[in-house]
Write a structure and sequence with these properties.
By secondary structure, the chain is α/β, with parallel strands linked by helices. It is built from 8 helices and 14 strands. Strands 3-2-1-4-7-13-14 form a 7-stranded mixed β-sheet, sandwiched between helices. A 4-stranded antiparallel β-sheet has the order 9-10-8-11, with helices on one face. A 3-stranded antiparallel β-sheet has the order 5-6-12, covered by helices on one side. It binds ribose-5-phosphate. Ribose-5-phosphate binds next to loops. GO terms for molecular function: ribose-5-phosphate isomerase activity.
Length: 298
Amino acid sequence: MFPTARCSPLFFRLPTLLFRPRFHSTMAALIEEAKRAAAKVAVEKHYPQDARWVGIGSGTTIVYVVEAIKALGVDTSATKYVPTGYQSKQLIIGAGLTAVEFDTIPPGTIFDVAFDGADEVDEDLNCIKGGGACLFQEKIVAMQAKEFVCVADHRKLQPRLLSNWKTVPIEVAPIAAHRVLSKLKDIGSVNPFIRASASEKEGPLKTDQGFFIIDAPFPPLLIKSDIAAGKEGNGKDGVWAVQDLARKINEIAGVLEVGIFQGETGPQATAAGGIGGQRPVAAYFGMADGSVSVRKAE
Ligand SMILES: O=C[C@H](O)[C@H](O)[C@H](O)COP(=O)(O)O
């Protein structure tokens, strides 16, 4: 029997050492292709030919959404693209599209559609967002759109939030960060922490608003079917339902916004007399086999 990689002599480990980088780069390339495939289908299905206002999210997947919009070949000269942060704005401008900041849109403007990525999506289409430190502008842009469409790769497709992605990103005022940490512990988060910058000497990472991000671990979050099956989800036993935890975190003074997108979809909000919803109408996932899987809201 061959020794295990951990304790084997170099002779036995050589093939692993030689092939591992290539394996990882192949995996990374496949993930990028999965994002691109999902973006293409999402844009083909949801981008209106005569779009006037389009929300553009943040992250690595949204790059392929913009690529897919350009590939449609439609006239974009009259379309305004609303970014969700610095990276998003540069992406729009770099593609030759017109970026219009959220705070300059005319009152009453409703976006035709908003596209964005996610860190995790559950069976009810609730999402975790903020892994790349963007969540506040993403939420207000999604909530200004007739429909919010999520695009991701297969790693994000999970039965419950916090299955694979273990923490809830929360944007907080720097002065209140330690207060918020303490309150999060009170409601059952074990070892929440302030996200650091890539360079230690720069201290905590800053969002586009100049705020901090707290990453708060919780056990996987319950969805509607769990509650219907008799589970409580009120945090008493440390387990929360999606909407209860989102509400509880947003109630903490010092929190700007929580990276849980839940509640109404755009069409549900419109039917109720409002506008926009933070839960997507559909989420498109690029799968490992090259196909695209879709989850649609009820
Ligand atoms: O903070 C960043 C945003 O919420 C992103 O949409 C999310 O993290 C997904 O990013 P990516 O497409 O890079 O996986």
